[in-house]
Amino acid sequence: MKLDAKLLRYMSNDEFRVLTAVEMGSRNHEVVPTRLIAHIAKLKSGGATKILGELARNNLVARVQNAKYDGYRLTYGGYDYLALRTMSKRGAIHSVGNQIGVGKESDIYIVADEEGNQRVLKLHRLGRTSFRNIKEKRDYLRNRNAGSWLYLSRLAAMKEYAFMKVLHENGYPVPEPVDQNRHCIVMGLVDAYPLCQVHDVEDPGKLYSALMNLIVRLACAGLIHGDFNEFNLLINDRDEPILIDFPQMVSTSHRNAEMYFNRDVDCIRAFFRKRFHYESKLYPKFTRDTEREFSLDVEVAASGFTKKQQEELEKLQEELGDQSDDSGSEETDDEEASTDEDGDVETERDAATVEDELLQEVPSSDNLDISEADSQHL
Ligand code: ADP
Ligand code: MG
């Protein structure tokens, strides 16, 4: 899934209005009826259709035909565009450089601000492979948007940003959080290598202790990383660790806290045994070593990423974990939409009914302010 940064510079206001209208409609529809898009964008339907064709050619939306009506679905390309545009207006991003990582659930790019300071852009891509499989089961999302992969990826970005902020403010070694919008976060570029690429350290015992101390320090503040491994730890030239990537972060009051904690500890022990032939009898245990001193988990909840959102995300992640069969190719997900026959969860109701409902519900999100269309772009 490529990020086409060049596109950002050449979009007309009408195109932007239509793209935003598709995003708004996606809150309630996996496939947004063309008529509805025109209505939200306040364009004549002929005009909207023409622009939708343009957007589809650029892979920002995908056309979907189904039994009840024709419509469009926002693609990751379109969602990327909207997020980048917002963050460039805020000055967090001025230019996009090389891709430095492709995870199963994220893409990572080097970006720069106007002064040329390098930063890291992380685009969350949750559910891009398997979300479609679970949509029938998601009772708890019944009143949520239909394009739930948007919601899920946004939740993941909100979570990562909220944790990074609280950890950074409290002096933990994490990247500096710069900005978050939709499914994207911008953070400081850490000048360090992932532990998985590190083969020589001066004193493995010292690094081992630093990592175990970090696990304990987090737990004393009420947090468990949950994915504390050689891929999510960057090691700088002084052999100090910087922790990244918080998709699984949980509170020490989580029902499975002990399991998560022990798994993090075991992960480091196993890695040190294998890579550095280093083994220590000393390692932290959840019950003994983790008296809580203060509560960053509570601070995170207060910072805008609520407990309810955390629970919702956990539930979805669990389900996705259960289902990750990896059968579909990640790269083709967006293209696949144009031929997707079952992509609509609203088939029970016709377009006119949903249109009425949507018009009452949708247009009041700060993310989705269509008046943005009139201001300058990148
Ligand atoms: P994923 O969720 O896909 O695992 P990560 O946040 O772990 O994504 O990032 C993947 C890779 O990108 C890391 O292993 C690291 O090499 C690089 N990376 C991520 N964030 C930064 C950063 N702030 N500074 C430098 N490199 C980074
Ligand atoms: Mg990672």
From TrEMBL:
Keyword match Nucleotide-binding: yes
Pfam families reported for this sequence: RIO1, Rio2_N
SMART domains: RIO
Reaction catalysis annotation: L-seryl-[protein] + ATP = O-phospho-L-seryl-[protein] + ADP + H(+); L-threonyl-[protein] + ATP = O-phospho-L-threonyl-[protein] + ADP + H(+)
Biased composition (Acidic residues): 319-345
EC number, as in UniProt: 2.7.11.1
CDD domains: RIO2_C
Gene3D superfamilies named among the record's database cross-references: Phosphorylase Kinase, domain 1 (3.30.200.20), Transferase(Phosphotransferase) domain 1 (1.10.510.10), Winged helix-like DNA-binding domain superfamily/Winged helix DNA-binding domain (1.10.10.10)
Similarity annotation: Belongs to the protein kinase superfamily. RIO-type Ser/Thr kinase family.
Full protein name: Serine/threonine-protein kinase RIO2
